Structure formats: C-alpha cells, structure tokens
Amino acid sequence: MSTFKAPKGTYDLIPPYSAKYLAVRDAISGPLRLSGYGYVETPGFEDVDLFARGVGESTDIVTKEMYTLTTKGGANLALRPEGTASVLRAALEANLHKAGGLPVKLWYSGSYYRYERPQKGRYRHFSQVGAEAIGAEDPALDAELIILADQAYRTLGLRNFRILLNSLGDKECRPVYREALQAFLGGLDLDEETVRRAEINPLRVLDDKRAEVQKQLVGAPMLRDYLCDACKAYHEEVRALITAAGVAFEDDEKLVRGLDYYTRTTFEFVHDGLGSQSAVGGGGRYDGLSEMIGGPALPSVGWALGVDRTVLALEAEGVELDIPPATSVFAVALGEAKPVLFGLVTELRKAGVAADISYGGKGLKGAMKDANRSGARFAIVAGDRDLAEGVVQLKDMESGEQSPVTVTDVVALLRTKLA
Ligand code: ATP
Ligand code: MG
Fold it and tell me: Taking a C-beta distance cutoff of 8 angstroms, is the pair 410, 331 a contact?
C-alpha cells in the first residue's frame, strides 16, 4: 500500500467492478444517441458565478457543496457540481441555438463534485450521465426524456424504480403560489435556517426530509391547486404522452427538487432498495435558466442520472449485467514460441477477439495460471516442438480438451468457435 489514500468521500473504480460503470454509462447514453442527442463535453471547472446564478444562490449546492478555488491569475472557479448550467453555457457560447433547428439536443457523461457528508450513495466525487433539450417548449420533449430514462433503466434490468412527477408552474402561477406558501410557512415553528430558506425559496422547504418539518407541512397549500390553465394543459399532455408509451409514474405534489431553475415539469427516479439515498436520477424543465446566465429565452428540459447510485440499485436488485469477458483467448508461449503467439494475439485482437498473452517469461505452470485467471474460454499453447510441426495446441478451458490446430487456421477457427 502507498502512503496515500483516495480522498475522503471518493473511491476508485477498479476492474472487474469498473466494467459495471462502463455498462451503465453505455446503457443510459444508448437511447439518447438513438434519439438525436449529440455528445457534449465541458470543462471540469467553471466560473463560480455560473453555478451561483444558474443553480441558485439559496440551494444546498451553492451554499454548502461547491468546491471553489481562486487561480493564480485571480479567477474564481468551482469544480462543477452539476451539468446543466455548464452544458447550457457551452451551447450558448457556441451559438448552437442559432446554428440549426431547435431544440438543440445534447448528452454528456462525466465526473461531478460536491462537498457533502459522505455516506452510502453520497460521495464527493460522483458520476452522471445527462441529457438536455434546449430551446423548445413542447410536452413531447419532456415526455421523450422521461421515456428514454425509463428505457435506459429497463435495458439494464432495473425493475424496482419509480418515477415521481410534478409540475412547478411557471412565472405566471408560481409567484401566486409562492406567496400563499410563504404565508403558511410563516405560521410554523421552524429553525432559523429553514425560516431563511422559506424567504428565499419557500418551495424547497416542501422538500425538507426531516420528519419534524414534514409533520408541520400537513395542510400546506399545494401548487397543483394554483397551476394556471397553460401549465395545467401542458402537464396533462406530458402525463398523457408518458402513459401512452406505457411508462408508469406517480404524481408527487411535493416533488420540488433541489435546484432553483426548474419550471413546470419536474421528475425524479427513485429506487426503493437504496435506503435514504433513494434518488437515482432527476430532472425537469428549466425555461428561465438561459436568461439567468445572460442568454436569450430558451425554454429547455433535461435530466441527470447518477451512475454510482444506478450501480448500487442494480446490486440491490441482484441484477447481473451482461458484461462480455475481458479475455476470450489466452496465449501461453513456451521456448521460442513467443513471437509466433504474440503475432496470433495481435491478429485475434484485430479480428475483434479479446485476446491476451502471458508476460514475464513464465514457465508452463505460471503461464497456465495466468490463462485460468484471465477467464478465457480458450488457450493457445505452443512450444518449439509444436511450431516445428506448424501447429499450436488449442485448449478448451471449460472441458480441458486439447487438440493441435495449424497455425494458419487458428484465428479463423477461434472466430467461428466464439461467434
Ligand atoms: P440528493 O437528493 O441525493 O441530494 P440531488 O437532488 O442533489 O440528489 P441531482 O442534483 O438531481 O441530485 O443529481 C442527479 C443525480 O445525481 C441524483 O439523483 C444522484 O443519483 C446523483 N447524485 C447527486 N449527488 C450525488 C452524490 N453526492 N453522490 C452520488 N451521486 C449523487
Ligand atoms: Mg444533493
């Protein structure tokens, strides 16, 4: 062991476990790539004000969770705590919203950083795959994203997740509700921090996980009763489209999500096998965000799914992912056979067969141990005598059977056997 350890709240992804993360990222991005979403990658850090303005001054993310730093040049940066503000910033900077038709559909995958209290499912460095559809107000777009996330989870084999859905209203109806809620909250017995939150963003008090707060919220005015006709109609259309796609969801009037920029459609994917860190992903519409960061009006919708928690959810359900073996063929070279087998391994790899060879000048016993450990289905073994006869020994690692195969035939034969 070295004298260093991974920093608190972080962990390393190590084979073979790390293969699950790749599989999850592929499964989540797969449906997006088939639906017109283009890949976007933004820096790991941004101007701190992008998040302060974009995510919201009163959010936990901005007040407590950001890793901020001042560069030698005096710039104030933050490690990105989430993806949406950065992706929108990048789209605006590249004028993607002017370049072609709207919406601009983008997906991303990467690391995010939040200074949180580490616990199962909550880390300081975690990974998300996300999608954003920028510049269109259309219930079908909200529905599309929810359906694609559902599809991703189902492709992975997840079953025990639920989709929670709500509408947060828009700039017409939300202020009226906000005032009514504030009046209600004013009559409660809340701690100082929550009172302050009630002043800045009262909706987020509804999201408070503490039982003593939730108890007092019984009888609070509900946004559902305040939605304007346009928001109601919009929400009904989203619901109808998801229903028609056969995707089940639950209406959750208290779902407000932690970010300030959401409007209208909001949703969360929760998994019941994860304990208190039950949200595996979430998203919603953010019609005002572009203007908040200095852009034009661009109504948009998106989500981010947590890769770490999705892996935990798969484990909680006992789902075994269909991960192809890291090695299908393992070569064991004895005597002077190394160059020939090394050449065969290179050929196999070019032909798309996962192949590896023993390194380090091991004898038969050590090299066969490597072959076993690799999990390969077949081993090709050869020594000087085999090569003199123009053959290698092909060993079936399951049955243990072994037979000579002409060197020039072995790649084609293995391809057929493994197909
Ligand atoms: P939470 O309710 O757990 O605080 P959040 O509302 O802060 O989640 P989002 O900002 O919506 O989460 O991020 C989307 C997804 O990213 C979450 O559903 C979760 O799967 C994942 N995620 C967020 N924060 C963390 C973290 N600290 N560690 C691991 N995964 C995280
Ligand atoms: Mg959080």
Answer: no
**C-alpha radius of gyration, the chain, whole number:** 27
What does the pLDDT average to over 247-256? 93
Looking from the CA of residue 114, the nearest atom of ligand 1 is 27
How do residues 17-69 score in pLDDT, each as one tens digit? 999 999 999 999 999 999 999 999 999 999 999 999 988 877 889 989 999 99
Query: Among all ligands shown, which has an atom nearest to the Cα of 312?
Result: 1
Token pair 């084979």: residue: 15
**Ligand 1: does its nearest atom lie under 6 Å from the Cβ of 306?**
yes
CA of 109 to the centre of ligand 1 (A): 14
Which domains are delineated in the chain? 18-169+246-317 (3.30.930.10), 329-418 (3.40.50.800)
Q: Which atom of ligand 1 is nearest to the CA of 124?
A: 27
- Cβ of residue 81 lying under 6 Å from some atom of ligand 1: no
Tell which atom from ligand 1 comes closest to the C-alpha of 305: 15
Name the residue of 80, 269, 309, 312 whose CB sits within 8 Å of the most ligand 1 atoms, as the mutation to test its pocket.
Answer: 309
Q: Which atom from ligand 1 is nearest to the alpha carbon of 277?
A: 3
Proximal ligand: closest to the CA of 123: 1
Q: What is the pTM for the complete model shown?
A: 0.93
